[in-house]
Amino acid sequence: MLKNVLVALDGSEIGERVIQSLNDLVLASDAKVILCHVFPTTESERELPADRPQPESSKFPDFYIEKQLLAYKEQLLFDSELELVTGDPAVEIIRLANIYKADLVVIGSRGLTGMKRIVLGSVSTQVMEEAHCSVLVVKPEKS
């Protein structure tokens, strides 16, 4: 029975399908679900010296994502908590899965193919290959 489930959400429309799929799973009565979002670190932020003032970035996207995760939390049939982190999405998802000793990671796939997949990479593929637990990849509906 699944006790610890990490759900990675990126703010895209696939999030609704991920939450629906999660609610369809059979979890332990005391299961812990962690809804997470990783804010990618931009190259420019990595190159700034730590002793210099950081430029003001818009906090609106952060607020929107947190609000969206709270709305998803309300839709869940079990207890959950939120994790908002910054970094490389695949690396942070795997790190959180290890911290929470996840039995399962649930992640959406944007369905990138061809050059887009090569250039942008696939977070879900990297998580599947490197996570130490099972990974459920929720794909977008076919149009």
Summarize the entry for a quick read.
The chain is an alpha/beta fold and 143 residues long. 41% of the residues lie in helices and 26% in strands.
Main beta sheet: strand number and arrangement? Answer: 5 strands, parallel
Q: Proportion of β residues?
A: 25-35%
Structure class: alpha/beta
What is the CA-atom radius of gyration, in angstroms? 16 Å
Count the E strands. 5
Reading the helices and strands in chain order gives EHEHHEHEHHE
What's the topology here?
Layout: E1 2-8, H1 14-24, E2 27-39, H2 43-47, H3 60-75, E3 80-86, H4 89-99, E4 104-108, H5 114-120, H6 123-130, E5 134-138
Parallel strand pairs: 1-2, 1-4, 2-3, 4-5
Helix pairs in contact: 4-6
Description:
The protein is of the alpha/beta class. 41% of the residues lie in helices and 26% in strands. The protein contains 6 helices and 5 strands. The chain has helices at 14-24, 43-47, 60-75, 89-99, 114-120, 123-130, and strands spanning 2-8, 27-39, 80-86, 104-108, 134-138. Strands 3-2-1-4-5 form a 5-stranded parallel β-sheet, with helices on both faces. Strand 1 (2-8), helix 1 and strand 2 form a beta-alpha-beta unit. Helix 4 (89-99) packs parallel to helix 6. The chain is globular. It starts with a strand and ends in a 5-residue tail after the last strand. The model is unreliable at 44-58 and 116-120 (pLDDT under 50).
